[in-house]
Every structure is written in C-alpha cells, then in structure tokens.
C-alpha cells in the first residue's frame, strides 16, 4: 500500500472514526471497549501506509501497548460485572476502578505510563503523529471522566505529566520528540478537568488541535525534523517564520495567544473548587516547557531576515496569525459572560 488514495484507506478511516464515536455514545463498559478495539483496528493499517520498516516497528509497538491496556480494561469490566451483575453500574471497589483508570492512562500516554509514546512516534509521519496526539485521546479521556473513584491517581498522573513532559523535552533536538513531550505536558491540563467538565476538556483538546495542525503541516511540507533545520531555510521560507512563531508561542500558552485561553478556563474552574496546589504544579510544568518553546522561537527569529515584511504573507496565513494573536482578547468577554450564566442559581 502506498501514499495514494485507496478505497481500503477510506474504510480504515471510517473504522477509526466510528470506533471513537461508539465509545463516546455507549452506555456500558463492554460497548466502550468494543469501540476502542474498532478504533485500534482502523488506525493500525493507516500507520503502515508507506510500508517502511520504521512504520512497521511503530505499529507493532502501538498494537502491543494498546492490546495490553485493553486487556486490563476488559478484565476490570468483567470482574465488575461478576460483582454487580450489570455492565451499567459503577465500581463497587476502588481496586477495579484503579485498574481501569491505569489502563486508560496507558492508552493516552500519561506519565508515568508515557515511556512507550516517544520511542514509538519519533519515526512517524507528521500527519499520523497528529492523529495519535489528538484523535486517539478523545475516547479514553471521556471514559476516564466516567470513573468516580480514586481521584488521587488522576491528580498525581496530571502533575507528573505536566512536569516530566516539560523536563524531558528540554535537551531534545528532534522536533517530533519535542512535540510528543509537549503533548504529554498538555495532557496534564486535560486530565483534572475531565473529572469536572467534559465540555471544557473537549474545548482544550480542540484548541490544542487547532494550534498543532498547521504547525505539523508546515513541518511536513518543509521536511523539517530537527531544530537545526529551522535555521537552514531560504528567504522564501523565512517569510513564514512569524506565522510559525505565533503558533509555537500559542502552544506555550503565552497571553494574548489563543493557547492561553484554554489554560485560563481550566485555572478559573480549579480555583473556584478551592484547588490551589494542583494548578500551581501545572503552572510549574508550563514554566519549564517555556524554555524549549522560546528556544525554538529564538532559533527562528535569528534567521528570519524577512521577519517584518508581513505584507508579503498570504491572506490565509494572516487570518490564522490574527486568530492566534487576538484569540484570547476576543474570547475572554464571551467566556466571562458564559461563566456568569453558569454561576447564576
């Protein structure tokens, strides 16, 4: 199978999409597990679309990890059924809920269960990496919000993900590894809010996807794989650097970029619930991650000879740049109005 269009590829994409939708719309644990398996069977052939040895190795690793976590998930579901004789019930013991929670944390690649993710994804294409870092996390994150036991496991994993993902990305020169560890750090923000408000968690994931999609497409189009490649672009590519730098700063969550909005929403909710230490630890991880974000931005600034000639940029790049620069300014009044509505008795 090559990179051209095949009807089988369309079928695999539909399997992957329908698997996630099945997990989100199911009312019992067995159907959720079936949706996860359908999603896995759909994405594995897409990972081998160019039939390279590195892609085959990555798909085998992904299959082994996902199969192990699915086995833990269905095992805890069966034990729960044996104790309550119902697939619709919540857990009677914290042991079963802990096993299921760990299995879903393995699926999304949260710390300390994240070690398989960098070694598997560092040789993938940018588009497949985007799918694994965004779409493949939707169903497990929503399923985690249905487990109403052992919040300390979730909070500990969120803090570890935010800090370890930021620390491990500092000395990396591979851009794919930097984006993977950045995704683990952002996952630390999504985990605690999934317990409180699924809509905010989905909004965070949507904003994160909007930021990294044009970034990954640009990396793929320019065949950029390492940080030193950012300094070897010609003058035509340097005109686009301000657009790429705005996306990187938005990914870092620097105001007034769009990425700051999602962190502001989660911070507001956590503080209203009298959680002080959790957002503090999450912000410590974000401050550590600023080092490599600003390092990438500085690398591109030094080599951007046409940095301020924005009038030569294309119209669509201008619009995306304005969205990232003014996103928080536009959305803050809307968000404050919505929060006032929610707080009314």
Automatic annotation (TrEMBL):
Cytoplasm keyword on record: no
Known EC number:
7.1.1.2
Gene Ontology molecular function = NADH dehydrogenase (ubiquinone) activity
- GO cellular component labels: mitochondrial inner membrane
Q: According to its UniProt record, where is this protein located?
A: Mitochondrion inner membrane
Protein name, entry field: NADH-ubiquinone oxidoreductase chain 2
Which keywords does this Swiss-Prot/TrEMBL entry list? Electron transport, Membrane, Mitochondrion, Mitochondrion inner membrane, NAD, Respiratory chain, Translocase, Transmembrane, Transmembrane helix, Transport, Ubiquinone
Similarity comment text for this entry: Belongs to the complex I subunit 2 family.
Lipid bilayer topology: Multi-pass membrane protein
The record's Gene Ontology biological-process terms are: mitochondrial electron transport, NADH to ubiquinone
Its UniProt entry gives the catalysed reaction(s) as: a ubiquinone + NADH + 5 H(+)(in) = a ubiquinol + NAD(+) + 4 H(+)(out)
Q: How would you classify this enzyme at the top EC level? A: translocase
Query: Which PANTHER family does this UniProt record tie to the protein?
Result: NADH-UBIQUINONE OXIDOREDUCTASE CHAIN 2
Membrane-crossing ranges are: 5-24, 30-48, 60-79, 85-106, 126-145, 151-170, 177-196, 202-221, 242-261, 273-294, 315-339
According to its UniProt record, where is this protein mainly located?
A: mitochondrion
């Amino acid at each position: 199978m090559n990179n051209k269009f095949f009807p089988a590829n369309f079928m695999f994409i539909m399997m992957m999409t329908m698997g996630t939708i099945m997990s989100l719309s199911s009312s019992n644990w067995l159907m959720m597990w079936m949706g996860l398996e359908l999603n896995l069977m759909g994405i594995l052939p897409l990972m081998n679309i160019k039939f390279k040895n590195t892609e085959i190795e990555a798909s085998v690793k992904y299959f082994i990890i996902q199969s192990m976590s699915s086995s833990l998930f269905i095992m805890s579901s069966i034990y729960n059924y044996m104790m309550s004789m119902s697939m619709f019930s919540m857990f009677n013991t914290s042991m079963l809920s802990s096993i299921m929670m760990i299995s879903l944390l393995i699926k999304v690649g949260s710390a300390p269960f994240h070690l398989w993710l960098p070694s598997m994804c560092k040789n993938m294409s940018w588009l497949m990496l985007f799918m694994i870092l965004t779409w493949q996390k939707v169903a497990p994150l929503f399923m985690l919000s249905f487990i109403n036991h052992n919040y300390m496991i979730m909070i500990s994993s969120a803090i570890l993900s935010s800090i370890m993902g930021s620390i491990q990305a500092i000395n990396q020169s591979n851009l794919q590894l930097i984006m993977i560890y950045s995704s683990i750090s952002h996952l630390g923000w999504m985990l605690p809010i999934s317990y409180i408000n699924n809509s905010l968690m989905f909004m965070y994931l949507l904003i994160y996807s909007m930021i990294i999609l044009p970034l990954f497409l640009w990396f793929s189009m320019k065949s950029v794989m390492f940080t030193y490649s950012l300094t070897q672009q010609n003058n035509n590519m340097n005109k686009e650097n301000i657009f790429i730098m705005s996306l990187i700063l938005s990914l870092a969550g620097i105001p007034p970029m769009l990425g700051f909005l999602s962190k502001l929403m989660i911070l507001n909710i956590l503080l209203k619930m009298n959680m002080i230490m959790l957002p503090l630890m999450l912000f410590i991880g974000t401050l550590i991650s600023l080092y490599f974000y600003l390092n990438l931005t500085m690398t591109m600034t030094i080599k951007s000879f046409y940095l301020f000639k924005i009038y030569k940029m294309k119209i669509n790049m201008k619009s995306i740049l304005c969205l990232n620069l003014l996103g928080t300014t536009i959305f803050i009044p809307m968000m404050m109005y919505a929060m006032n509505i929610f707080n009314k008795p």
